[in-house]
Design brief:
The chain is an alpha/beta fold and 354 residues long. It has a single domain, classed as Alpha/Beta hydrolase fold, catalytic domain (Rossmann fold), CATH 3.40.50.1820. The protein is built from 15 helices and nine strands. Strands 1-2-4-3-5-6-7-8-9 form a nine-stranded mixed sheet, sandwiched between helices. The longest helix has 14 residues. It is globular and about 50 Å long. 45% of the residues are buried.
């Protein structure tokens, strides 16, 4: 049935760009169910949700595609003990506005800089996840004087990582139809791709993701973001980034596979790679203790680290780890958790062991 719908979309898109789904609409302003304690800043006419906690050297946290600042819920308590922590819902995601406009990594980076200007932050370390890594690297290329160091979790930063459906969605009409038909479908399956330990994929997590997909303007903003993911020109400049970089990666990640970690560690002159066994796309959840410790040590360093590749003691993955092939995963990147998953007892114990 899904293949039939896709074929129909391909056939009708040139003549009926809004016919099957209705034209996608953007949204600005408050949304139903907003957190009462949330902070907002007006940045370039958009209402941007952010948090600002702790004291010390500033660290800016950037979430991934289809996610929010809650990605960092398990990191912030450790980080705010020694740092000023600033996290935000990037334009188009979380509880921030979804206005029409440019959603490229460079545009999101400009928005981040303007928010930091409002908060009086001139230089900071940047920590990013997945697609948010492309924003962090765009910022480092555009304004290196604002960056002290960079940490990237399972980065989505290369043209070769973009799935076929995203490339197809660049076409006018076809993108609207594809996203209108499929973007909010089967979030449970897409979330499951992101985790090695499926005990993290709980019913409350799936329900929270479904609710986030229902917010006004979400599909239009997601499509605009996908159309902004054109990395060819940006990735050619990664070798010019002279900041120290820590790459934190799940060994069993089928969304951004380890081969891209190794490539990025070669492209960034001062990069160090840490790979976590039995871990998928979210080391901050599945390898919380070790990844938090590695990040805090990196942020405390003063001298640029020597480019090396590190890894914990290898542990052979169970056969189930290969149940989803990397090729299959690349056809439909997962919807990222809007909040730290409420782990089952099994998941919590597995994370403690890391």
């Amino acid at each position: 049935m899904k293949n039939l719908a896709l074929a129909l979309a391909l056939a009708l898109a040139p003549v009926l760009p809004c016919g099957l789904t209705g034209c996608l609409s953007f949204h600005a302003g408050a949304m139903p169910g907003e957190p009462h304690t949330a902070k907002y800043a007006a940045v370039d006419g958009a209402r941007i949700r952010y948090l600002d906690k702790g004291q010390g050297p500033p660290v800016v946290l950037l979430h991934g595609f289809a996610s929010s600042l809650e990605t960092w819920d398990l990191l912030v308590p450790d980080l705010e003990r020694t740092h000023r922590v600033i996290a935000l819902d990037l334009k188009g995601f979380g509880w921030s506005d979804r206005p029409e406009g440019d959603y490229s990594p460079a545009a999101e980076a400009r928005l981040v800089i303007k928010l930091l200007d409002q908060l009086g932050v001139k230089r900071a370390a940047f920590v990013a996840h997945s697609w948010g890594s492309s924003v962090a690297l765009a910022l480092a290329l555009a304004a290196p004087e604002r960056v002290t160091r960079i940490a990237l979790y399972d980065a989505w930063v290369y043209e070769e990582q973009i799935p076929t459906t995203f490339i197809m969605a660049r076409a006018d009409g076809l993108g609207e139809m594809l996203f209108g038909l499929f973007y909010d479908q089967r979030p449970d399956e897409r979330i499951a791709l992101a985790f090695y330990n499926k005990d993290f994929v709980t019913e409350p997590l799936v329900e929270a993701v479904e609710a986030s997909l229902d917010r006004p303007g979400t599909t239009a903003a997601a499509l605009a973001s996908v159309r902004g993911q054109r990395f060819t020109e940006q990735q050619a400049r990664y070798r010019t980034i002279e900041k120290p970089v820590l790459l934190l990666w799940g060994r069993e990640d089928v969304v951004t596979t380890v081969k891209f970690a190794e490539r990025l560690s070669r492209d960034l002159p001062h990069a160090r790679l840490v790979v976590y066994p039995q871990c998928g796309h979210f080391p901050m959840f599945e390898a919380k203790r070790q990844s938090n410790e590695d990040l805090l040590k990196f942020l405390a360093e003063e001298d640029p680290p020597v480019a090396t590749v590190e890894a914990p003691k290898p542990a052979p993955p169970p056969a189930a780890a290969s149940a989803v092939s990397p090729a299959a995963a690349r056809t439909a990147p997962p919807v990222a958790p809007p909040a730290a998953p409420p782990a089952s007892p099994k998941a919590a114990k597995a994370e403690d062991d890391q």
